[in-house]
Structure of coproporphyrinogen oxidase:
Amino acid sequence: MNSNIWRTLLFHTRRFSTTSTKNAYRSFTKAALLVSGGTGVAVICYMGNFPKVHAASGVATVSKAHSKWMADSITDVEVFEQNPNDMKTKMEMMILRMQGEICKELESIDGDKKFRVDRWTREQGGGGITCVMQDGTVFEKAGVNISVVHGTLPQGAVNQMRSRGRKLQGQSLPFFAAGISAVIHPKNPHCPTIHFNYRYFEVTDETGEKEWWFGGGTDLTPYYLVKEDVVHFHKTLKAACDKHNQTFYPKFKKWCDDYFNIPHRGERRGVGGIFFDDLDYADKDELFNFLTTCAEAVIPSYVPIVQKHKNDGYSLGERQWQLLRRGRYVEFNLIYDRGTKFGLQTPGARYESILMSLPLTARWEYRHEPEVGSKEDLLLQVLREPKDWVS
Amino acid sequence: MNSNIWRTLLFHTRRFSTTSTKNAYRSFTKAALLVSGGTGVAVICYMGNFPKVHAASGVATVSKAHSKWMADSITDVEVFEQNPNDMKTKMEMMILRMQGEICKELESIDGDKKFRVDRWTREQGGGGITCVMQDGTVFEKAGVNISVVHGTLPQGAVNQMRSRGRKLQGQSLPFFAAGISAVIHPKNPHCPTIHFNYRYFEVTDETGEKEWWFGGGTDLTPYYLVKEDVVHFHKTLKAACDKHNQTFYPKFKKWCDDYFNIPHRGERRGVGGIFFDDLDYADKDELFNFLTTCAEAVIPSYVPIVQKHKNDGYSLGERQWQLLRRGRYVEFNLIYDRGTKFGLQTPGARYESILMSLPLTARWEYRHEPEVGSKEDLLLQVLREPKDWVS
């Protein structure tokens, strides 16, 4: 098998953690059958509808792509080769590529630290690749993770989906989920934190009905407000949205402001961006292309801002303010974020990957109130009353 | 009115924040009537069953006690004077006294910083006194709060109580709650963090049935394990329990280990102590006396440990480990703690008082694992497998 050759080569040239290599070559073919096992139609469709000639040309494509990934794919490449048009294959290959591109870009900006790469498998099905850089010159903590998991949805997750309006029948539902998720906390308080997450979900209910949807978003959390940076960030996201649907940006911008809210403080976490979930209307491939465009917009939306400010001077007071705002970031993630809650409730979830979103350091001062009219106060005004950045 | 004299004196001699003094002299008599308004019996009982002679002798007692409080009581002292035997009066006077004693003790140990005292009122009924010391010589952050609130229980809280087995009928239930709650984070990693909370709750359901219960506990979170300190702490709590009921300590020690659990990490927050809730059996006054003994045991259980270690030398590595453990403290409080969740859900809750439990600084490192056999690892073993400290 061709794919074995580059897999062997790769094994000797890439960084892996000890724990992560152990299970790296476990075959996922059986697992893939298991995921789709909830519906007879899906099994046939997944395993049988690609003639051998496609699979053969797939080898070259997968092999070429692989050299840019941070680690071996979660699903066995044979499954990719046999199912190049399946959305599971497309999503996993897209997130593997984006993880590679973004990690390389951040390593080149940092110039000092490299990402630690942990490839892990989940007992109940699937696994992930967690890439974390800690205590770099530019980046204090950056995590870029992918996960491709399948199995049976826990009851809590089914209820959460139903509460969002999904008509899922039954108790114990087979699911597949693939996503990329990242949080990048730079050291310099003049460089904002960015978070993004793009994901694809499939659930088969007990009537055999298969539901699928996409979700995701990118949002920015500055510590000091530089209007033109925020405008650049939002304009880049708007251009990505507009390429696919003119209604997306205004809708998803508002959704983002509503989602990243810290109700007990009456503040947003940051200056927003875009956020969406349950995207299942329109053409599936077109939605996948939209997701890809969004993921590809991460670097151009963010990197210029980091490059601009990474060498800015800052005072101890500015650093303290950054740490206080990171405390708010922790509050949002641990109290309100649906992803974190869902993650920690999922049996066999890898909590270290979920909690990599937390900053290296955070601070809580009782009743900290910035001076009226100060730069810190200026930021707070915008967090309390989200603004329109592109018109 | 006698009580007006010392109130006026006090106003000129004690520290108050600007915001807290504004509503300090609002009369609470109407509010107190409102709380008890759910049941005719309660109103009569609360306002009418103490002859004037008791009220008059109450003035002297209340007046003497007041000089040791951190601020004016939440409920008007006239209500105390008229109802000296009502559990609401007893609880509020006990927590006011304990807050005063503990704050004074901590100030004397710190020798540098004083507590900032914020007396606040809650629009929906009641209020509290939040005392916070920040960035002291010995104490990095210490909060000792009391709150005395009443009004209508939010639906979420009613459901939470029902899920614990309380048979409350109806949707919108009048309640009264009084409690003291404190978290003390010393600077030195060799001094443990302590938390305690003692509370009394009354709810009247729509059938007019009044339920009441006590809850509380004290628990210790060391960063390094000093066996004899933990034994001293547990023995002091056991002695307090044994004074009232020999079955309390073993039961409440286990409850504490079970409650302060961080399931996603498979670790307890600290080395435990005692924890209990829904204590409504036996004689009400006897349970109040038990609560009082527990609250009085806080200083003897904890202060000797702080005195012993407050000047210990420590390395940067030991400080970093302390901050990592404080990250776990934040995880427990924001994800799992019922008090924090209940607090943040309560309309009109003062989030600054609820979140004062968070440390001044915390740290999250991806996959931090102490060296096997190190002092840090020794602590982890105990957090993973709670021990018996007194036999």
Observations:
- Chain B has 16 helices and ten strands.
- The CA atoms of residues 190 and 312 of chain B lie 7 Å apart.
